[in-house]
């Protein structure tokens, strides 16, 4: 018997399905080496020129910084600042310890000239500082009190007169402090009256520090000072 269900023919191919997407590859042309070489050379040239201009500009500003751009020359600016400070008109006074044999009626602090420092400012009768050049000065004082007095306030005042022959004095600055608590009881501590202000002075003007009672002042080193410098 012949088997009619077997055949040697291959099965027909499966038809393609149209519902699937197929990627289409589009060939991309490679860049031409002949065109890329000039472009790279141009970019390298531009970068080199930019670097050259930056270096040249830095060198120019560095050598001309003292006049046009002083902030680019820190050593020169530092030396100029040091020169200005060392040549500034100033006085820095240290109080002289009051002796019991000295006249107690004077209420002006006296200054220890050996431990004080003066530059282009005069010194008169151990008390007054004499201005030799007109201008604006920053004047300061620090007076420390070690004792209190219930009858008078603890005050320090900077007095000024026009010159050494002028008898009229005026108070240009004043400061106060207290050694008592709210109950009025004396407490064992110090208090300091500090003041500082810009004052316009003329050549010949004199300044000094006045207190109500010299015996109340603390004369320890650094506790009571007086000074000024020209702005």
TrEMBL record:
Belongs to the tumor necrosis factor family. Coiled coil: none annotated. PANTHER family: CD154, TUMOR NECROSIS FACTOR FAMILY MEMBER. Pfam families: TNF (PF00229). GO terms for biological process: immune response. The chain crosses the membrane at residues 39-62. Residues 75-231 form the THD domain. It comes from the Eukaryota. This is CD40 ligand. Its main location: membrane. SUPFAM superfamilies: TNF-like.
């Amino acid at each position: 018997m012949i088997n009619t269900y077997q055949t040697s023919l291959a099965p027909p191919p499966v038809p393609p399905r149209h519902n699937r997407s197929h990627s289409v590859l589009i060939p991309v042309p490679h860049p031409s080496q002949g065109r890329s070489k000039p472009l790279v050379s141009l970019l390298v040239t531009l970068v080199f020129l930019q670097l050259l201009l930056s270096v040249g500009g830095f060198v120019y500003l560095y050598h001309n910084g003292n006049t046009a751009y002083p902030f680019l020359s820190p050593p020169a600016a530092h030396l100029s600042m040091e020169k200005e400070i060392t040549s500034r008109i100033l006085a820095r006074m240290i109080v002289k310890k009051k002796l019991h044999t000295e006249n107690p009626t004077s209420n002006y602090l006296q200054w220890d000239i050996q431990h004080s420092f003066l530059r282009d400012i005069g010194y008169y009768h151990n008390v007054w500082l004499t201005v030799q050049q007109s201008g604006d000065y920053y004047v300061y004082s620090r007076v420390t009190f070690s004792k209190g007095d219930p009858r008078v306030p603890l005050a320090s005042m900077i007095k000024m007169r026009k010159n050494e022959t002028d008898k009229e004095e005026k108070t240009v600055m004043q400061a106060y402090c207290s050694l008592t608590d709210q109950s009025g009881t004396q407490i064992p501590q110090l208090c300091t009256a500090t003041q500082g202000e810009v004052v316009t002075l003329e050549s010949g003007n004199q300044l000094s520090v006045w207190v109500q009672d010299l015996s109340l002042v603390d004369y320890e080193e650094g506790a009571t000072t007086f000074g000024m410098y020209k702005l």
